Amino acid sequence: MPTSHSPTAMDDDDDGDGIPDDQEVDTDGDGIPDHLDDDDDNDGIPDDQDDDDDGDGIPDDQEVDTDGDGYQITLMMMMTMDGIPDDQDDDDDGDGIPDDQEEVDTDGDGIPDHLDDDDDNDGIPDDQDDDDDGDGIPDDQEVDTDGDGIPDHLDDDDDNDGIPDDQDDDDDGDGIPDDQEVDTDGDGIPDHLDDDDDNDGIPDDQDDDDDGDGIPDDQEVDTDGDGIPDHLDDDDDNDGIPDDQDDDDDGDGIPDDQEVDTDGDGIPDHLDMMMTMMASLMIKMMI
């Protein structure tokens, strides 16, 4: 004799609403899931008129349902095992990945970049993609100063010092104020961190003219050693007096109007001779 089977016993979704039975919430146990029940707590007050649908004593407007599964959680429940409330916790789920890194979803597909195999959804897996976030900047040229997984040009706090970049005088936390940083090629990477300052395709350590200004590096003068050649520096000797107000731009004790520059190359003769002697000495040492 054939044995009859109850469809319900084999069905993970008895009411066919797309929500597995073990995830359905039925607060008053009347057999009607809360999302289909007009009176979840069976207190006689319809939910659309009830300030506390589930009858737990916590007003609905103070309940939190972070994952949208119908289960409300209180402040105590909002704490992970570290005992820190989520609104004060930098890592709500305790997985070791800061929340501000988990929130990055470049292609908006609902999968955080750190879990997404194709961050920009261009059909090229990230491990084969030279530009994971599809912003037009190759990955090996992107700068992420604080290592938080967010490129500086997309990060509101590049150095992760807690000061938003638009209020921070030193976005990358390198000790050099932003207004003193030089980015010759405008690629977002300061020259002192850039392997190709003028973006001419020739690495700086092989380039005779790093900043592409037509003046060979060995002929450029940087009096104060701040990385900005004198002809581009507003304060050559870094004495706090702008050159256009300074009677002695290079701080050598000789007033500018008494300096002699016979060849007009912008380098005073007494420094020109010194550089020539040094160059000659270097050549002799190399022979």
Describe the overall structure:
It is a single chain. 11% of the residues are buried. Among the domains are: 34-67, no CATH class; 176-247, no CATH class. The protein contains three helices and no strands. By secondary structure, the chain is mostly loops. Residues 10-68, 84-266 have a biased composition (Acidic residues). Keywords: Calcium, Secreted, Signal. It is found in: Secreted. Its main location: secreted.
Helix and strand layout, with pairings?
Layout: H1 7-10, H2 99-102, H3 269-286
Helix content: under 10%
Distance from first to last alpha carbon: 105 Å
The coarse overall form would be elongated
Average residue-wise pLDDT: 72
Task: Report the order of strands and helices.
Answer: HHH
Low-confidence stretches: 2-9, 73-79
Question: What can be said about the biggest beta sheet?
Answer: none
Structural class: little secondary structure
What does the radius of gyration come to? 33 Å
Beta strand %: under 5%
Discrete helix count: 3
Tally of DSSP β-strands: 0
Keywords: Calcium, Secreted, Signal
Subcellular location: Secreted
InterPro entries: TSP3_bac
Pfam families: TSP3_bac
Give a nutshell description of this structure.
This protein has about 290 residues and is low in regular secondary structure. The protein has three helices and no strands.
